[in-house]
Amino acid sequence: MSSGGSSTETSGSGDIARTLDLLWGTGQRPSRGPKPGLTLERIVETAIEVADRDGLGALSMRRIATELGTGTMSLYRYVPGKAELLDLMLDRVQRPSENPADLGDGGWRSALEALGRATLALYRRHPWLLEVNQSRPILGPSALDGMEKVLSRIKPMGLSDPELLSAIVMIDGYVVGAARTQLYQEQAEHSSGLTDAEFWEAQRPALEKAMNSGRYPVMAALSDDTFSSGFDHFEFGLQRILDGLEEFVSRRAAEQGR
């Protein structure tokens, strides 16, 4: 998987009205074109496959047309351009699972826990999502279906509506940071040609000298497993966020006499 360059795409940068028509199926469907089987759904799926494989930098209407074996102009019968297509891609990859068990065992904590893990998995499957500025998303059916499912499960937290939304934003922000760190680590290994173990081994002599100098007594006394790859930093952080929310929910309930 290529990073596809360092440029950032922005959601909602196309024709908003046209994008909403396409997302919600309220616009006029194109008449049958010269390419049998060509549909908006196929175009979106193909675009996702290209971005997954080669990054957003490789995504263009010409590239998608080549993948589909059709002319570039035929795509414009279905979608106005790359900006609107990106919003369709974003909504498509956010399509929620139909299995209620995928949001935990029923409690709000398990729902947010499952949301965190599922969101990390989403970014792992589609690393190009980290190249998109989604501060102003176009809200389609998949995004709203997912939000509805999560809100319905965390409503019993007893928080105000803005606070419920903030809990979701908190989890998402944490996951985005973790996903970006993981992606950067993989890109560094690929670009340098050094594995993570080889990279740190190259620093060992200098670090051992520094630790033996007496200048860093706290760090020198750290246990051998401190930087072990076996420690799940993502899961540790996620659980501490949930612990904090649990404490806040309990305090709010006590204040309200619940």
UniProtKB/TrEMBL annotation:
Keywords: DNA-binding, Transcription, Transcription regulation. Residues 60-79 bind DNA. The keyword Transcription applies. SUPFAM superfamilies: Homeodomain-like, Tetracyclin repressor-like, C-terminal domain. One of its GO terms (molecular function) is transcription cis-regulatory region binding. It comes from the Bacteria. The keyword Transcription applies. Residues 37-97 form the HTH tetR-type domain. One of its GO terms (biological process) is negative regulation of DNA-templated transcription. This is TetR/AcrR family transcriptional regulator. Pfam families: TetR_C_1, TetR_N.
